[in-house]
Amino acid sequence: xKNKYPLPIMIIHWLTLFLVVLAYTTGGDPTVHLKTxxxxxxxxxxxxxxxxxxxxxxxxxxxxxxLNKPRSKYQRTLFLMVxxxxxxxxxxxxxxxxxxxxxxxxxxxxxxxxxxxxxNSWDVEIIGEVHEFLGNSFMVLIGxxxxxxxxxxxVFKDNVLKSMLYFKx
Length: 169
Ligand code: HEM
Ligand code: HEM
Fold this sequence. Notes:
The protein has one domain (7-164): Up-down Bundle (Fumarate Reductase Cytochrome B subunit). Helix 1 (7-25) packs antiparallel against helix 2, helix 2 (34-60) packs across helix 3 and helix 3 (73-104) runs antiparallel to helix 4. By secondary structure, the protein is an all-alpha fold. It is 66% helix and 2% strand. Strand 1 (109-110) and strand 2 form a beta hairpin. The structure holds protoporphyrin IX containing FE (HEM) (2 copies).
């Protein structure tokens, strides 16, 4: 068992953070705010594609994932709950964004490429609100996740944060 995450998983992890922050800071109706909207949709779709790649890469490197020993069984349950909630949101938020966009316009050009949209008769306003709510909740959860990593590093002084950092020995 290694004490660091494999490099491809580290790259996906930190690239996802960058893209989520980009998606969050460019949030808004992409059919109104054209330039930032394009960045929003690009970052959001990239998060979704990276999520799919992440699942494949993690299953390939299954045996090389560090076993950061939990301090108690409650901590392990909490870690797994946060992990699977993050996973679900990485999937759900972009999909809801895409459904909302499909209801707001009949065609959408992303860097001159026509994005495939679905025709639907759902209440786009509500789906848009849910997308926004989950987007905001996601940032709060990431904040807790990051805080936990920092507490591990500075208070418990263990290997958890270092296991996701390339440079730190
Ligand atoms: C991790 C990915 C994403 C995050 C964190 C995110 C977050 C957000 C947030 C917070 C808003 C509300 C902004 C505001 O009104 O102040 C928003 C709006 C919106 N997003 Fe996303 N988004 C993501 C991905 C996507 C994707 C992939 C699409 C489309 C393919 C999309 C389409 C939209 C649309 C259409 C709105 C406007 C909703 C409305 O006005 O009702 N988003 N997004
Ligand atoms: C978009 C933001 C983030 C997402 C979606 C995210 C998601 C995840 C996920 C799902 C894992 C479990 C490993 C895996 O399946 O890849 C993980 C592990 C980890 N993350 Fe994040 N993370 C984010 C941001 C951060 C930040 C800002 C920090 C630190 C400041 C951080 C530190 C860590 C550490 C140290 C681990 C290893 C935990 C362990 O194995 O015990 N993450 N992250």
